[in-house]
Amino acid sequence: MIVWSNPMSKPRYIMALDQGTTSSRAIIFDQRGEMVSVAQRPFNQYFPKPGWVEHDGKEIWASQVAVLTEALAKSRLDAADIQAIGVTNQRETTLVWDRATGEPLYNAIVWQDRRTSRYCDEIRDEWQAKIQDKTGLVLDAYFSATKAKWILDNVEGARARAERGELCFGTVDTWLIWNFTRGKVHVTDPSNASRTMLYNIHTLDWDDELLKLFGVPRAMLPEVKSSSEVYGETSNRYTECKIPIAGIAGDQQAALFGQLCTEKGMLKNTYGTGCFLLMNTGDTPVKSANNLLTTVAWQIGGKTTYALEGGVFVGGAAIQWLRDGARLIRTSADINNLAHTVEDNGGVYFVPALTGLGAPYWDQYARGALLGITRGTTDGHIARATLEGIAFQVYDIVKAMEADAGQATSQLRVDGGASKSDYLMQTQSDLFAFDIVRPRTIETTALGAAYLAGLATGYWPSIEALHEQWQVGQVFKPKLSPERVQHMLHYWHKAVRAARHWIEE
Fold this sequence. Notes:
Layout: E1 13-19, E2 23-29, E3 35-42, E4 54-55, H1 57-75, E5 82-89, E6 95-98, E7 108-109, H2 117-135, H3 144-154, H4 158-163, E8 167-170, H5 172-180, E9 187-188, H6 190-193, E10 199-200, E11 205-206, H7 208-214, E12 223-224, E13 228-233, E14 244-250, H8 251-258, E15 267-271, E16 275-282, E17 293-300, E18 303-312, H9 316-324, H10 334-339, E19 349-351, E20 369-371, H11 379-405, E21 411-415, H12 422-432, E22 435-439, H13 444-456, H14 463-467, E23 472-476, H15 482-499
Parallel strand pairs: 1-5, 5-14, 9-12, 15-21, 21-22
Antiparallel strand pairs: 1-2, 2-3, 4-7, 6-8, 10-11, 13-14, 15-16, 16-18, 17-18, 19-20, 22-23
Helix pairs in contact: 8-13, 9-11, 11-12
């Protein structure tokens, strides 16, 4: 049983700052890993051109400060009650700012942004193999390197200023910590660094050859520290007393840790804006032969843990499109009731390639496709097809991951907002013919960041102690016949073929 570190003293807490693609959150956890308080604030999405996605870095920062304050107020706690802060963030999203003033040179270019796709095509033949060998990544506009290059190439005077050391580069974790420490700390961790396409996952350092290729001066890069250590403290300007910042992990790696997939072969899927499936591969990076990514999961106590990853660009975002674009539902939760108005998908299949296809296809020119529509098609069929389209994409990644790992999967741990959909989870179990396990706490991304910060400051004594806390919420077991599943998969893959290479530029 977990007890307070010092039962004679006032209980303390850990705060996780979870900066996502559509909102910023702050969650306070107690020593049992239970949520004490949650605050969330959405921020604007900007789409200046087709395929371009941007955020206002200052708005991200302001929203994160606001939810920190709100979470404390809701829980009636003071900053002095928080032992440490862990930070987890949307990955690959890229910011460049003035080292002296802290002013961003340009909006944050979001991981979904496709503006550098053509440049990636131009250098692919020469550089794809070398980039994969060094970074574990495929050459794609998804990652930070080409986004940073674009800012330096397109903002007047930026490149010269970067070479003089006047500018800072960072992913969102780096940006938040820079601001919370008022410019004293410019850091990231290996899980985020490994998503930039500038970091060598074997030497665990920025790679000079890739820095030269993308024209990113080393002087603007953050220092890479472990995922669990004290990096600095918040400024009194934002909290009435200084709070140690002691954990960093990209959102998907944080979720893997929050699910306590700490043993080799364990895997999880997060159903968020996108869907991201990670498998712990231990202390050895596994090179994928099936278009998956090799990434750093975390680094704790000098030990680096690696993972295989497959990413779906549009997961929960497909439900958002159904709400905001197609306007078939008023709230995201409505999709479940709408899906239950019909017995099956009516032969309708939706490929949610709204920003291209991620793993294992990596087709940046694919586009969304809704196929199989007849006069009998209803909004319920489209709702079902949308949820199933998310599950099908995850299925394709798991099969590629099994091939790379050389082993079959028997269980998948799930989290994220869309994992609340019982229909989606049941569909996922039916496709795989094994158990889908949803934990009691599905906010595992934030929990993972909290765990990392708590381990660094002695709030939790060990990873083994954390395993005592993890609790199953619900298990979904397969129900559909294998014949029905194969029928669905046949038409899904037929639909994918129709959606691929739609844009011919």
